[in-house]
Amino acid sequence: xxxxxxxxxxxxxxxxxxxxxxxxxxxxxxxxxxxxxxxxxxxxxxxxxxxxxxxxxxxxxxxxxxxxxxxxxxxxxxxxxxxxxxxxxxxxxxxxxxxxxxxxxxxxxxxxxxxxxxxxxxxxxxxxxxxxxxxxxxxxxxxxxxxxxxxxxxxxxxxxxxxxxxxxxxxxxxxxxxxxxxxxxxxxxxxxxxxxxxxxxxxxxxxxxxxxxxxxxxxxxx
Length: 222
Ligand code: DX5
Ligand code: ZN
Fold this sequence. Notes:
Blueprint: E1 4-7, H1 17-26, E2 32-38, E3 45-46, H2 49-58, E4 63-68, E5 86-90, H3 97-106, E6 110-115, E7 133-137, H4 152-165, E8 172-176, H5 181-190, E9 194-197, H6 209-220
Parallel strand pairs: 1-9, 2-4, 4-5, 5-6, 6-7, 7-8, 8-9
Antiparallel strand pairs: 2-3
Bound molecules: D-xylitol-5-phosphate and zinc ion.
């Protein structure tokens, strides 16, 4: 898996989506982050399989699908998941987490587990052998435009230590939520590898996607 930037497609301009997708490609996006919401695990609805399928018809950028969905294992078959994609499920939303991660692996994608800011790292201890990425929410899931939950920053460092101690130093850590330039600097220092860029970064108003991405890369690539 590559390190880098995963722009949050829910923050793109839905009325000019192809233009934004082309700009994100030109800006070298390593992934496209698709937030899937069911109105139950989170109090919002967002991005379904048809939109992801439509984007995949025009772009080969790997999908980074973030299921904010109760019992996501029931729905994976509905989505156009491909070899090389990353698929994150919330530990808080899976009755059988290890089985769901195995299902994702069997689909040829990189399994990942996501944690809300308030969920302790011990929730993933038993599935470290099954994941390629750990998604740490830096805001409470469900909406773009929120503010960083500050205690997530030291949580990144503790997550890195936990992975190394478990012999999984290869697992990448993705941060999702309020990835502004200032927060990205702090996240990088704490050990983040992949940055979900939404309204706080790549889709920031008043400058282009390319300009915003260049500024973000300058911060995360130091
Ligand atoms: C929130 C989503 C994030 C969000 C990021 O539940 O998971 O991907 O879109 O957007 P900003 O950068 O506005 O927090
Ligand atoms: Zn997300």
